[in-house]
Known about the structure:
Elements lengths: L1 H19 L4 E5 L5 E6 L3 E3 L2 H8 L6 H9 E7 L16 E8 L2 H6 L2 H5 L7 H14 L5 E13 L5 E11 L2 E11 L5 E10 H16 L2 E2 L5
Antiparallel strand pairs: 1-2, 2-10, 3-4, 4-5, 5-9, 6-7, 7-8, 8-9
Amino acid sequence: xxxxxxxIAVTVAVLMLSACGQPDVHYVRDEAGTTYFAVPSSFxxxxxxxxEQFLSGGNPSSVAAAVRAxxxxxxxxxxxxxxxxxxxxxxPDPFIYATVHQLTEEQRNAxxxxxxxxxxxxxxxxxxxxxxxxxxxxxxxLLFTNFMLIKDEELTLEDGARGVRVRFEYQxxxxxxxxxxxxxxxxxxxTVSVMLIGCESVCFRKRAAEFDKIESTFKLLRLxx
Length: 225
């Protein structure tokens, strides 16, 4: 009996140590240490390079792509049973994409709150109209249709940083997808930090409180100097 109790005690201790060694969240910082957020450990972290190639639309072997890679950091997380970067724009399960851009001089001069809204997907009336015109001119079908703006909030943050948080819906293929997009411009106007959370609209409505909690961890870090 004493031996059995000893085995039980050891087993419990091992399980407790194992549980303690597995954090509930991924703590994430960009390479420059400017931006921080936390993602539940139920998400799988992915290589975001294919997303960068898709969003930039350029030749990944070009000089421009190499220069861009030096200015852009990104990561992605997927909660699907079979995680994939293809879930960025369509998945019944939550997907998170985050990026930090070191702006060029030209970009600094052009950045605005509307530019922050449109940083990844077309959100403002003007950019959605340009998107439709470009698709019509090239004869390509629209990937994003039936846009609906749900929330649009301007953010005034510590140390002069500012940004936007928008929630919107798009039909992509046969499915309705909902996205929560937060973009922050630092006080110097030097970097833009963006978090995009998305999943099918039914999923999003059920889990909006969880996504609000994740979004609330998305912060700029106060660096020395």
